[in-house]
Amino acid sequence: MKKWLASLMTLFLLLGVLSACGPKESSSGETGNNGSKETKPEKLVIWEDKDKGAGLKPAIEKFEKKYGIKVEYKEMPMLDQQDKLRLDGPAGKGPDVITTPHDRVGPLVTEGLIAPLDISSDVTGKFTDSSIAALTFKGKLYGLPKSTETPVFIYNKKFMKKAPETLDEVYKMAKGNNSGAQYGFLANWTDFYFAYGIIAGYGGYVFKDNNGTLDPKDVGLNNEGAVKGLDFITKWYKEGLFPKGVVGEKAGQTIDGLFTEGKVASLMNGPWSFQPYKDAKVDIGIAPMPKLPNGEYVKTFIGVKGWNVSSFSKNKKWATKLVEFITNEESAKIRFEKTQEIPPVKSLMNDPIIADNEGAKAVAIQSERGIPMPNIPEMAEVWKPVANALQLAATGKQSSNKALDDAVKSIKENIEAKHSGK
What dotted CATH number matches 152-302+375-419? Predict the structure, then answer.
Protein backbone atom coordinates (compact mmCIF):
# COMPACT_ATOMS: atom_id res chain seq x y z
CA MET A 1 0.00 0.00 0.00
CA LYS A 2 2.79 2.41 0.94
CA LYS A 3 4.63 1.55 -2.29
CA TRP A 4 1.49 2.28 -4.30
CA LEU A 5 1.03 5.68 -2.57
CA ALA A 6 4.68 6.52 -3.10
CA SER A 7 4.39 5.67 -6.80
CA LEU A 8 1.24 7.76 -7.11
CA MET A 9 2.91 10.78 -5.47
CA THR A 10 5.87 10.43 -7.80
CA LEU A 11 3.53 10.44 -10.80
CA PHE A 12 1.76 13.60 -9.59
CA LEU A 13 5.09 15.35 -9.07
CA LEU A 14 6.24 14.36 -12.57
CA LEU A 15 3.03 15.66 -14.15
CA GLY A 16 3.42 18.91 -12.24
CA VAL A 17 6.93 19.40 -13.60
CA LEU A 18 5.82 18.66 -17.18
CA SER A 19 2.91 21.07 -16.82
CA ALA A 20 5.23 23.81 -15.61
CA CYS A 21 7.45 23.23 -18.64
CA GLY A 22 4.54 23.27 -21.10
CA PRO A 23 3.98 26.07 -23.66
CA LYS A 24 2.25 29.21 -22.49
CA GLU A 25 2.36 32.93 -23.29
CA SER A 26 4.08 35.14 -20.77
CA SER A 27 5.14 38.75 -20.51
CA SER A 28 8.57 37.85 -21.82
CA GLY A 29 7.61 35.91 -24.91
CA GLU A 30 5.03 34.42 -27.21
CA THR A 31 4.40 30.82 -28.12
CA GLY A 32 4.09 29.83 -31.77
CA ASN A 33 1.86 27.19 -33.28
CA ASN A 34 4.59 24.59 -32.92
CA GLY A 35 5.07 25.39 -29.22
CA SER A 36 8.35 27.21 -29.79
CA LYS A 37 8.80 30.40 -27.82
CA GLU A 38 10.06 33.67 -29.26
CA THR A 39 11.51 36.07 -26.72
CA LYS A 40 9.76 39.38 -26.63
CA PRO A 41 12.03 41.98 -28.26
CA GLU A 42 12.78 45.38 -26.83
CA LYS A 43 12.28 47.02 -30.23
CA LEU A 44 10.77 46.42 -33.66
CA VAL A 45 11.67 48.45 -36.75
CA ILE A 46 9.22 49.28 -39.54
CA TRP A 47 9.78 51.06 -42.83
CA GLU A 48 6.88 53.31 -43.85
CA ASP A 49 6.24 55.02 -47.17
CA LYS A 50 7.44 58.58 -47.65
CA ASP A 51 5.18 61.23 -46.09
CA LYS A 52 2.81 58.60 -44.65
CA GLY A 53 4.10 58.38 -41.09
CA ALA A 54 1.17 60.39 -39.75
CA GLY A 55 -1.11 57.48 -40.59
CA LEU A 56 1.10 54.96 -38.80
CA LYS A 57 2.12 56.82 -35.64
CA PRO A 58 -1.19 56.48 -33.70
CA ALA A 59 -1.21 52.68 -34.22
CA ILE A 60 2.41 52.41 -33.11
CA GLU A 61 1.73 54.33 -29.90
CA LYS A 62 -1.14 51.99 -29.00
CA PHE A 63 0.92 48.89 -29.85
CA GLU A 64 3.76 50.10 -27.64
CA LYS A 65 1.38 50.74 -24.76
CA LYS A 66 -0.29 47.35 -25.09
CA TYR A 67 2.78 45.16 -25.54
CA GLY A 68 5.61 47.17 -24.04
CA ILE A 69 7.70 46.96 -27.20
CA LYS A 70 9.32 50.06 -28.68
CA VAL A 71 8.49 50.50 -32.38
CA GLU A 72 10.80 52.62 -34.48
CA TYR A 73 9.60 53.71 -37.90
CA LYS A 74 11.50 55.26 -40.78
CA GLU A 75 9.93 56.87 -43.84
CA MET A 76 11.32 55.74 -47.16
CA PRO A 77 9.86 55.69 -50.71
CA MET A 78 8.14 52.32 -51.14
CA LEU A 79 9.89 51.50 -54.39
CA ASP A 80 13.30 51.99 -52.72
CA GLN A 81 12.65 49.57 -49.90
CA GLN A 82 13.32 46.38 -51.87
CA ASP A 83 16.82 47.53 -52.87
CA LYS A 84 17.55 48.78 -49.36
CA LEU A 85 16.38 45.52 -47.75
CA ARG A 86 18.55 43.52 -50.12
CA LEU A 87 21.61 45.22 -48.61
CA ASP A 88 20.57 45.92 -45.02
CA GLY A 89 18.79 42.64 -44.34
CA PRO A 90 21.78 40.27 -44.56
CA ALA A 91 23.91 42.82 -42.66
CA GLY A 92 21.52 42.73 -39.71
CA LYS A 93 20.61 46.40 -40.10
CA GLY A 94 17.28 45.94 -41.79
CA PRO A 95 13.72 46.37 -40.52
CA ASP A 96 11.28 43.80 -39.20
CA VAL A 97 8.45 45.12 -41.38
CA ILE A 98 8.37 46.88 -44.76
CA THR A 99 5.60 48.25 -46.96
CA THR A 100 5.43 47.50 -50.66
CA PRO A 101 3.03 47.42 -53.64
CA HIS A 102 1.57 43.94 -54.05
CA ASP A 103 3.00 43.46 -57.53
CA ARG A 104 6.45 43.37 -55.89
CA VAL A 105 5.50 40.39 -53.72
CA GLY A 106 6.56 37.77 -56.27
CA PRO A 107 10.01 39.25 -56.86
CA LEU A 108 10.52 39.79 -53.10
CA VAL A 109 9.62 36.18 -52.34
CA THR A 110 11.75 34.87 -55.20
CA GLU A 111 14.74 36.76 -53.78
CA GLY A 112 14.00 35.45 -50.29
CA LEU A 113 13.47 38.92 -48.84
CA ILE A 114 10.05 38.54 -47.18
CA ALA A 115 8.56 35.75 -45.08
CA PRO A 116 5.18 33.99 -45.30
CA LEU A 117 2.74 34.95 -42.57
CA ASP A 118 0.96 32.53 -40.26
CA ILE A 119 -2.31 34.40 -39.75
CA SER A 120 -5.73 33.01 -38.87
CA SER A 121 -8.74 33.25 -41.17
CA ASP A 122 -10.44 35.36 -38.49
CA VAL A 123 -7.93 38.08 -39.33
CA THR A 124 -7.70 37.65 -43.10
CA GLY A 125 -11.49 37.46 -43.36
CA LYS A 126 -11.74 41.09 -42.28
CA PHE A 127 -10.24 42.21 -45.60
CA THR A 128 -11.70 42.07 -49.11
CA ASP A 129 -10.97 38.83 -50.94
CA SER A 130 -9.19 40.64 -53.77
CA SER A 131 -6.78 42.42 -51.41
CA ILE A 132 -5.80 39.16 -49.70
CA ALA A 133 -5.41 37.47 -53.10
CA ALA A 134 -3.12 40.31 -54.19
CA LEU A 135 -0.71 39.55 -51.32
CA THR A 136 -0.78 35.79 -51.86
CA PHE A 137 1.96 34.11 -53.88
CA LYS A 138 1.97 30.42 -54.74
CA GLY A 139 -0.68 29.73 -52.16
CA LYS A 140 1.04 31.51 -49.25
CA LEU A 141 0.17 34.86 -47.68
CA TYR A 142 3.02 37.36 -47.58
CA GLY A 143 1.38 40.44 -46.13
CA LEU A 144 -1.74 42.17 -44.87
CA PRO A 145 -3.39 45.00 -46.82
CA LYS A 146 -2.67 48.60 -46.00
CA SER A 147 -4.61 50.34 -48.76
CA THR A 148 -6.10 49.79 -52.19
CA GLU A 149 -6.36 51.90 -55.32
CA THR A 150 -7.78 51.53 -58.81
CA PRO A 151 -8.85 53.83 -61.67
CA VAL A 152 -12.37 55.28 -61.51
CA PHE A 153 -14.61 57.66 -63.46
CA ILE A 154 -14.05 61.36 -62.72
CA TYR A 155 -16.20 64.11 -64.18
CA ASN A 156 -16.40 67.89 -64.21
CA LYS A 157 -19.75 68.89 -62.69
CA LYS A 158 -19.80 71.93 -64.95
CA PHE A 159 -20.49 69.59 -67.85
CA MET A 160 -22.06 66.56 -66.14
CA LYS A 161 -24.64 66.52 -63.36
CA LYS A 162 -24.03 62.84 -62.60
CA ALA A 163 -21.98 59.92 -63.87
CA PRO A 164 -23.47 57.96 -66.78
CA GLU A 165 -24.38 54.31 -66.19
CA THR A 166 -22.68 53.00 -69.35
CA LEU A 167 -19.75 53.84 -71.58
CA ASP A 168 -22.20 53.80 -74.50
CA GLU A 169 -23.77 56.91 -72.98
CA VAL A 170 -20.33 58.46 -72.61
CA TYR A 171 -19.51 57.59 -76.24
CA LYS A 172 -22.73 59.16 -77.56
CA MET A 173 -22.07 62.33 -75.61
CA ALA A 174 -18.49 62.47 -76.88
CA LYS A 175 -19.82 62.10 -80.43
CA GLY A 176 -22.28 64.93 -79.82
CA ASN A 177 -21.80 68.33 -78.23
CA ASN A 178 -19.82 67.11 -75.19
CA SER A 179 -22.15 69.21 -73.03
CA GLY A 180 -20.04 72.22 -74.01
CA ALA A 181 -16.61 70.70 -73.31
CA GLN A 182 -13.97 70.25 -76.00
CA TYR A 183 -13.78 66.53 -75.23
CA GLY A 184 -16.46 64.35 -73.69
CA PHE A 185 -14.17 61.70 -72.22
CA LEU A 186 -10.45 60.92 -72.15
CA ALA A 187 -8.50 57.89 -70.94
CA ASN A 188 -4.86 56.92 -71.15
CA TRP A 189 -5.67 53.71 -73.01
CA THR A 190 -2.25 53.32 -74.61
CA ASP A 191 -1.02 52.65 -71.05
CA PHE A 192 -1.75 49.00 -70.22
CA TYR A 193 -2.50 49.87 -66.58
CA PHE A 194 -5.59 51.80 -67.73
CA ALA A 195 -6.42 49.75 -70.83
CA TYR A 196 -6.54 46.44 -68.97
CA GLY A 197 -9.94 47.21 -67.43
CA ILE A 198 -11.48 47.33 -70.90
CA ILE A 199 -9.64 44.27 -72.21
CA ALA A 200 -10.51 42.22 -69.12
CA GLY A 201 -14.14 43.35 -69.25
CA TYR A 202 -14.39 41.75 -72.68
CA GLY A 203 -12.74 38.51 -71.56
CA GLY A 204 -8.99 39.02 -71.92
CA TYR A 205 -6.57 38.21 -69.11
CA VAL A 206 -2.85 38.45 -68.41
CA PHE A 207 -2.14 35.05 -66.87
CA LYS A 208 -4.68 32.29 -66.29
CA ASP A 209 -5.78 32.16 -62.67
CA ASN A 210 -5.94 28.55 -61.47
CA ASN A 211 -7.56 28.77 -58.03
CA GLY A 212 -5.30 31.59 -56.89
CA THR A 213 -2.14 30.48 -58.71
CA LEU A 214 -1.22 32.37 -61.87
CA ASP A 215 0.04 30.35 -64.83
CA PRO A 216 2.64 32.39 -66.77
CA LYS A 217 2.47 29.90 -69.64
CA ASP A 218 -1.18 30.74 -70.29
CA VAL A 219 -1.37 34.32 -71.57
CA GLY A 220 -4.84 35.54 -72.56
CA LEU A 221 -4.05 38.92 -74.06
CA ASN A 222 -4.80 37.96 -77.65
CA ASN A 223 -7.91 35.85 -77.18
CA GLU A 224 -11.21 36.84 -78.78
CA GLY A 225 -12.27 38.98 -75.83
CA ALA A 226 -8.96 40.85 -75.68
CA VAL A 227 -9.23 41.71 -79.37
CA LYS A 228 -12.80 42.99 -78.90
CA GLY A 229 -11.60 45.10 -75.99
CA LEU A 230 -8.83 46.68 -78.02
CA ASP A 231 -11.26 47.29 -80.89
CA PHE A 232 -13.43 49.25 -78.45
CA ILE A 233 -10.41 51.27 -77.36
CA THR A 234 -9.17 52.07 -80.87
CA LYS A 235 -12.63 53.31 -81.89
CA TRP A 236 -12.14 56.40 -79.73
CA TYR A 237 -8.84 57.21 -81.43
CA LYS A 238 -9.95 56.45 -84.98
CA GLU A 239 -13.06 58.62 -84.66
CA GLY A 240 -11.09 61.57 -83.30
CA LEU A 241 -12.71 61.49 -79.87
CA PHE A 242 -9.25 61.50 -78.27
CA PRO A 243 -6.66 64.10 -79.33
CA LYS A 244 -3.48 62.88 -81.03
CA GLY A 245 -1.42 63.77 -77.95
CA VAL A 246 -3.14 61.11 -75.88
CA VAL A 247 -0.72 58.37 -77.01
CA GLY A 248 2.47 57.18 -75.37
CA GLU A 249 4.41 58.23 -72.31
CA LYS A 250 3.13 61.82 -72.12
CA ALA A 251 -0.53 60.93 -72.59
CA GLY A 252 -1.29 61.14 -68.88
CA GLN A 253 0.18 64.63 -68.57
CA THR A 254 -1.77 65.77 -71.62
CA ILE A 255 -5.05 64.45 -70.20
CA ASP A 256 -4.44 66.07 -66.81
CA GLY A 257 -3.64 69.39 -68.45
CA LEU A 258 -6.77 69.40 -70.60
CA PHE A 259 -8.98 68.41 -67.66
CA THR A 260 -7.62 71.05 -65.27
CA GLU A 261 -8.03 73.65 -68.04
CA GLY A 262 -11.75 72.83 -68.14
CA LYS A 263 -11.71 71.33 -71.63
CA VAL A 264 -12.76 67.77 -70.72
CA ALA A 265 -16.12 66.62 -69.37
CA SER A 266 -14.91 63.33 -67.90
CA LEU A 267 -11.96 60.96 -67.71
CA MET A 268 -10.55 57.77 -66.19
CA ASN A 269 -7.93 58.19 -63.48
CA GLY A 270 -6.92 57.02 -60.01
CA PRO A 271 -7.34 58.40 -56.47
CA TRP A 272 -3.91 60.07 -56.59
CA SER A 273 -5.48 62.64 -58.96
CA PHE A 274 -8.41 63.70 -56.75
CA GLN A 275 -6.61 66.36 -54.75
CA PRO A 276 -4.64 67.88 -57.66
CA TYR A 277 -7.89 68.31 -59.61
CA LYS A 278 -9.54 69.94 -56.59
CA ASP A 279 -6.50 72.17 -56.12
CA ALA A 280 -6.96 73.26 -59.75
CA LYS A 281 -10.47 74.44 -58.78
CA VAL A 282 -12.27 71.78 -60.84
CA ASP A 283 -15.61 70.79 -59.25
CA ILE A 284 -15.24 67.04 -59.66
CA GLY A 285 -17.65 64.15 -59.23
CA ILE A 286 -16.29 60.63 -58.75
CA ALA A 287 -17.95 57.29 -59.49
CA PRO A 288 -17.09 53.68 -60.35
CA MET A 289 -16.40 53.09 -64.03
CA PRO A 290 -19.57 52.92 -66.20
CA LYS A 291 -20.47 49.53 -67.66
CA LEU A 292 -19.13 48.36 -71.01
CA PRO A 293 -21.38 47.95 -74.08
CA ASN A 294 -21.43 44.17 -73.45
CA GLY A 295 -23.04 44.76 -70.06
CA GLU A 296 -19.93 43.80 -68.09
CA TYR A 297 -18.11 45.93 -65.56
CA VAL A 298 -14.77 47.49 -66.44
CA LYS A 299 -12.36 45.15 -64.60
CA THR A 300 -9.61 47.57 -63.70
CA PHE A 301 -6.27 46.60 -62.25
CA ILE A 302 -6.33 46.78 -58.45
CA GLY A 303 -3.21 47.94 -56.68
CA VAL A 304 -2.81 46.90 -53.05
CA LYS A 305 -0.16 48.28 -50.73
CA GLY A 306 0.70 45.87 -47.97
CA TRP A 307 2.80 45.36 -44.86
CA ASN A 308 5.34 42.52 -45.13
CA VAL A 309 7.64 40.83 -42.63
CA SER A 310 11.33 40.72 -43.53
CA SER A 311 12.90 37.28 -43.90
CA PHE A 312 15.87 38.66 -41.95
CA SER A 313 13.82 39.67 -38.91
CA LYS A 314 14.76 37.81 -35.72
CA ASN A 315 11.32 38.59 -34.33
CA LYS A 316 8.95 37.29 -37.01
CA LYS A 317 6.11 36.36 -34.67
CA TRP A 318 6.11 39.75 -32.98
CA ALA A 319 6.54 41.47 -36.35
CA THR A 320 3.48 39.58 -37.58
CA LYS A 321 1.56 40.70 -34.48
CA LEU A 322 2.57 44.28 -35.29
CA VAL A 323 1.32 43.89 -38.88
CA GLU A 324 -2.01 42.57 -37.58
CA PHE A 325 -2.29 45.48 -35.15
CA ILE A 326 -1.54 48.30 -37.61
CA THR A 327 -4.05 46.92 -40.12
CA ASN A 328 -6.95 46.32 -37.74
CA GLU A 329 -10.19 48.26 -38.19
CA GLU A 330 -9.34 51.03 -35.75
CA SER A 331 -5.84 51.57 -37.14
CA ALA A 332 -7.09 51.46 -40.75
CA LYS A 333 -9.79 54.03 -40.04
CA ILE A 334 -7.31 56.42 -38.43
CA ARG A 335 -4.90 55.91 -41.32
CA PHE A 336 -7.60 56.90 -43.81
CA GLU A 337 -8.37 60.02 -41.82
CA LYS A 338 -4.69 61.00 -41.82
CA THR A 339 -3.58 59.98 -45.32
CA GLN A 340 -6.76 59.37 -47.39
CA GLU A 341 -5.40 55.93 -48.32
CA ILE A 342 -8.43 53.68 -48.75
CA PRO A 343 -8.31 50.52 -46.59
CA PRO A 344 -9.79 47.29 -48.05
CA VAL A 345 -11.39 46.44 -44.70
CA LYS A 346 -14.89 45.05 -45.19
CA SER A 347 -16.41 46.61 -42.08
CA LEU A 348 -15.26 50.08 -43.17
CA MET A 349 -16.91 49.92 -46.59
CA ASN A 350 -20.26 50.90 -45.03
CA ASP A 351 -18.74 53.15 -42.38
CA PRO A 352 -19.72 56.80 -42.94
CA ILE A 353 -16.03 57.68 -43.23
CA ILE A 354 -15.96 55.72 -46.51
CA ALA A 355 -19.63 55.63 -47.52
CA ASP A 356 -20.02 59.42 -47.23
CA ASN A 357 -16.77 60.11 -49.08
CA GLU A 358 -17.54 60.11 -52.80
CA GLY A 359 -14.01 59.31 -53.94
CA ALA A 360 -13.33 56.63 -51.35
CA LYS A 361 -16.68 54.96 -52.02
CA ALA A 362 -16.06 54.90 -55.78
CA VAL A 363 -12.63 53.34 -55.33
CA ALA A 364 -13.99 50.80 -52.85
CA ILE A 365 -16.77 49.71 -55.22
CA GLN A 366 -14.51 49.64 -58.29
CA SER A 367 -11.90 47.66 -56.35
CA GLU A 368 -14.48 44.93 -55.74
CA ARG A 369 -15.08 44.74 -59.49
CA GLY A 370 -11.43 44.80 -60.48
CA ILE A 371 -8.62 42.26 -60.65
CA PRO A 372 -5.36 42.39 -58.67
CA MET A 373 -2.41 43.24 -60.84
CA PRO A 374 -0.38 40.01 -61.27
CA ASN A 375 2.33 39.78 -58.60
CA ILE A 376 4.52 37.11 -60.18
CA PRO A 377 7.97 38.04 -61.58
CA GLU A 378 6.89 37.19 -65.14
CA MET A 379 4.65 40.27 -65.14
CA ALA A 380 7.76 42.35 -65.85
CA GLU A 381 7.76 40.93 -69.39
CA VAL A 382 4.20 42.10 -70.13
CA TRP A 383 4.26 45.88 -69.88
CA LYS A 384 6.42 46.93 -72.83
CA PRO A 385 5.08 44.53 -75.50
CA VAL A 386 1.48 45.38 -74.65
CA ALA A 387 2.18 49.14 -74.54
CA ASN A 388 3.64 48.83 -78.05
CA ALA A 389 0.57 46.90 -79.20
CA LEU A 390 -1.81 49.49 -77.77
CA GLN A 391 0.02 52.34 -79.48
CA LEU A 392 0.24 50.54 -82.84
CA ALA A 393 -3.48 49.78 -82.78
CA ALA A 394 -4.51 53.24 -81.53
CA THR A 395 -2.55 54.97 -84.30
CA GLY A 396 -3.95 52.62 -86.95
CA LYS A 397 -0.58 51.09 -87.83
CA GLN A 398 -1.75 47.57 -86.98
CA SER A 399 -5.04 45.80 -86.45
CA SER A 400 -5.96 44.87 -82.87
CA ASN A 401 -5.54 41.20 -83.69
CA LYS A 402 -2.08 41.59 -85.25
CA ALA A 403 -0.80 43.92 -82.54
CA LEU A 404 -1.89 41.62 -79.71
CA ASP A 405 -0.61 38.48 -81.43
CA ASP A 406 2.82 40.04 -81.76
CA ALA A 407 2.73 41.25 -78.15
CA VAL A 408 1.85 37.82 -76.76
CA LYS A 409 4.57 36.22 -78.87
CA SER A 410 7.14 38.62 -77.38
CA ILE A 411 5.83 38.07 -73.85
CA LYS A 412 6.13 34.29 -74.13
CA GLU A 413 9.60 34.49 -75.66
CA ASN A 414 10.82 36.83 -72.91
CA ILE A 415 9.35 34.66 -70.16
CA GLU A 416 11.00 31.60 -71.62
CA ALA A 417 14.34 33.37 -71.93
CA LYS A 418 14.37 35.06 -68.50
CA HIS A 419 12.25 32.87 -66.23
CA SER A 420 12.34 29.30 -67.51
CA GLY A 421 14.94 28.24 -64.95
CA LYS A 422 12.94 29.53 -61.97
Answer: 3.40.190.10
